[in-house]
Amino acid sequence: MMLDWIANRVGEQLKSQRLVLATAESCTGGWVAQAVTSVAGSSDWFDRGFVTYSNAAKREMLGVRDETLARHGAVSEETAREMAAGALAASRAHVALAITGIAGPAGGTPQKPVGTVCFAWARRGGATEAATRHFEGDREAVRRQSVMFGLQGVLDRAAR
Questions:
Q1: Which SS3 state, helix, strand or coil, does residue 96 take?
Q2: Chain centroid to CA 144: how far?
Q3: How many domains are there within the chain?
Q4: The domain spanning residue 148 has which CATH number?
Q5: Which domain holds residue 41?
Q6: Per-residue pLDDT tens over the stretch 7-54
Q7: pTM for the model
Q8: Tens of pLDDT, residues 81-119
Q9: Can you point out the beta strands (E) in the chain?
């Protein structure tokens, strides 16, 4: 299965560079954390995961600002960036992945249709990168594709 493969590859890459990962997840509900902790030995390179489904959780656990949520919404690159920064600040990790989106079947708008997912990858002392993707399919398909894309982003950035 592709998810198992990429989770293993992420672990190999992080471990080889002595990097530790934290996750901040909304629409994926902890699926990234589940995928990486299914890898034997992941305690060597995974610190913790935050499931911050509500805006209150994003604010309280990750320090996402009220202004960011009001101006850009929970599903935005700005919010994803603050989620990733908050995950780094509240953990011992060197790198963080944040995911926030609209998995459906409801909740979409013309500006942000169902399947819109925002990502951020942050590195302690380094740059934070963000991206937005639109995934097709039902709720599970959107969530699975989000987990895969997020982990691929960790792999790509850890290899740099």
A1: strand
A2: 12
A3: 1
A4: 3.90.950.20
A5: 2-158
A6: 999 999 999 999 999 999 999 999 999 999 999 999 999 999 999 999
A7: 0.97
A8: 999 999 999 999 999 999 999 999 999 999 999 999 999
A9: 21-25, 46-51, 95-101, 116-123, 128-134
